[in-house]
Model the fold of this input.
Amino acid sequence: MYLNSGATIVVAVLLQHATPALSLFQRAENGSIVPGSSPLHYASNSKDHLFIIEYLDMYPNPCELDAYCQIKAEGKFKTDLSNSTHLSFNITTHFDDGRIGGLSGEDDLRGWVDIVQNETEQYPPREGNATVTWAVLLLYGWLPEAHYVAHAKITDGNETVVDLRTEFDMKLKDDYLLNLNPSVDPPD
Done:
C-alpha cells in the first residue's frame, strides 16, 4: 500500500482515539457511532452510503505517536464503484491559545486504502463483501497538541461511499516528554 504524507496526516487525525468512554452504539451529536472499536461516527445517514460498515477496528486504540496505526473495516459495497472514486477531507485544529488552523484536500481513493474481496486485492471495488484496510505512521512533530475536528467523505460521482467525522484532543504521552532532554537517548 502506498502512503503519502497527505494520507499520513489525514488518516492520523481521523483515527486518533477521541473519547474512550463513548459507548459503541451511543448516538453522537452529528450521527451514529461506527460499529467497532474506534472513535468515528457517521457524518451523514449511513443508510444512504454505498459502503455499509459492519465493524471498524483500530489498532492500537488509542493510536500512539511514532508508531503505525492500522484501521480495518469489514463491510459490504452496495454496488460496483468506478475508477474515479475520490476522497475529500477537512481538518480543523483548535489550539489552546485560541488560534485555529485548517487543512483540507481531495485525492483519488486509490493508494489510500487496500480493498480485498474474495481474498484478492480489488480496485475499484465491486458489489459485495469487502475488507478495507489502511495504515498510517503517526510522526511526532507533524501533529501538534490541540483539539481536532476531522471530516472525511469518499464519493463516487454524486453518490456517497462513506462519510465519517470525529473530534478529539491530541496530546503527547507523558513518558515521551521525559525523553525530550537532549542529554537522554531517545526511546527505541
Notes: The helical segments are 5-15, 174-177. Residues 1-30, 175-187 have pLDDT under 50 and may be disordered.
